[in-house]
Amino acid sequence: MPGGNTRHSVALAPYPVYARSGSGCRITDVEGEERVDFLNNYTSLILGHAHPQVTEAVQRRAALGTAFTMPTPEEVELAELLTSRVAYVEQIRFCNSGSEAVMLAIKAARAFTGRTKIAKFEGAYHGLYDYAEVSEGPTPDAWGEADAPASITEPGTPESVARDVIVLPWNRSEACRKLLEGNKDDLAALVMDPMPLGIGMIAPGPGFLPRLREETARYGIVLIADEVLNFRLAYHGACHAHGITPDLATFGKIIGGGFPVGAVAGSRRVMSVFDHTGALKVHHGGTFNANPVTIVAGLETMRNMTREAFDRLNRLGEYARDRLRRLFRDTGRPAQVCGAGSMFLAHLTAEDLIDFRSLRGFSRTSPVYGGLCHKLLEYGFILSPRGIFGCLSTPMSEAELDALVEALGRALSELD
Ligand SMILES: Cc1ncc(COP(=O)(O)O)c(C=O)c1O
């Protein structure tokens, strides 16, 4: 495997820890070392590892056959659960990853509007589709104007793709308004995540998201909410929590209960482009779409994630963010704690955090975070090497959070 791995997000210098098994909020590595897992396969395992009900459902389903060239009743059940839980989801289709979901949503918006361009935020990650990847992590030399960021493609993507992507600055309402207005006749969609991890989970300022909703509606631009990661924010999802109604949304991660999954969903009007009996057909195949093993794992997970389960987990998230803030205050360390719901992301800086560019100098590539990640591994905790980022799972309690904060305090003082 080039670079010794098959997924860049698990690379860790000089080599990663290899997992043997997971149970609840803990992972045991191949050498028998146990650690508390604050990454949960990058936020997807909201019930933790090997939840008994999920495991039982998967085993039962696998024994009955794992994939068919036919639909199964289970996909209807998961579709019904999600359409009844999220008000703006009238229709839904399943795929195998968040990247695919974003690609399908962009294609749907183009077919629906007859336009080509998309808008997205500088620094925001939306998976691997060429257009969605534009300017997901540009270096300062390539940034361009603050109010009109440059459109930078990834290696391997034709530069012509950049012409079809308008890059917006997060939290700068007026600049966004101008860029949307200036491209209104060409823009099929605005893709946005209400609390983008790639932008350090810097919260949207008051009125920022509603204003984007207003502007996109004014110009007939399809608003695509990428909830692949942030659907774990709340029982009805991230957009509901922020009081906005998108036209389309993409899901992934938690709705697959630990198995590969994605979904594109939204209003019946826009989703009609996928209806093979209608006029506008966006092709949507996929050998493993809605395979029943993924679907039963997702169903079991989402059924477990009741309002009460979300409330409890999000209260724990608040506790974690409070404890971290206290740690930084008590040790006189300049830091800010972002994140919401069951996620936290701490930045070791006192500078104003507004957009992707304000992360400069203490960004996800800073070696400080890599050093902290190694120290925490030593102390028995799994966090991201690209920022003090973690997410919680339901088997956790205050005890794991207290222990983490104590270990982080120790790790920080040793790295000073
Ligand atoms: C916001 C967001 N969108 C899309 C994706 C892509 O999802 P996947 O890794 O399932 O392709 C991710 C993955 O981390 C994500 O965080």
Would you give an account of this structure?
This protein is α/β, with parallel strands linked by helices and 416 residues long. It has helices at residues 40-43, 52-62, 73-85, 98-113, 130-133, 160-163, 173-182, 208-219, 238-242, 268-271, 292-304, 307-330, 367-379, 398-415; strands spanning 19-23, 26-29, 34-37, 91-95, 117-121, 165-168, 187-192, 222-226, 248-252, 262-266, 336-338, 343-347, 381-382, 388-391. A seven-stranded mixed sheet has the order 4-10-9-8-7-5-6, with helices on both faces. Strands 1-2-3-13 form a four-stranded mixed sheet. A three-stranded antiparallel sheet has the order 11-12-14. A hairpin with a 4-residue loop joins strand 2 (26-29) and strand 3. Helix 2 (52-62) runs antiparallel to helix 11 (292-304) and helix 13 (367-379) packs across helix 14. Pyridoxal-5'-phosphate is lined by residues 42, 97-99, 102, 125-127, 193, 197, 226, 228-229, 252, 262.
Bound molecules: pyridoxal-5'-phosphate
**Low-confidence segments, ≥5 residues, pLDDT <50?**
none
- Give the SSE order as H and E letters: EEEHHHEHEHHEHEHEHEEHHHEEHEEH
Give the overall pLDDT as a whole number. Answer: 96
- Count of individual beta strands: 14
| Range of helix content | 25-40%
Rg: 21 Å
Strand content of the residues, in percent? Answer: 5-15%
Q: Report the major sheet.
A: 7 strands, mixed
Shape: globular
Our measurement of the CA-to-CA distance between the termini, rounded to an integer number of angstroms, reads 36 Å
Q: What topology, given as strand order, has the largest sheet?
A: 4-10-9-8-7-5-6
Structural class determined from secondary elements: alpha/beta
Query: Helix count?
Result: 14
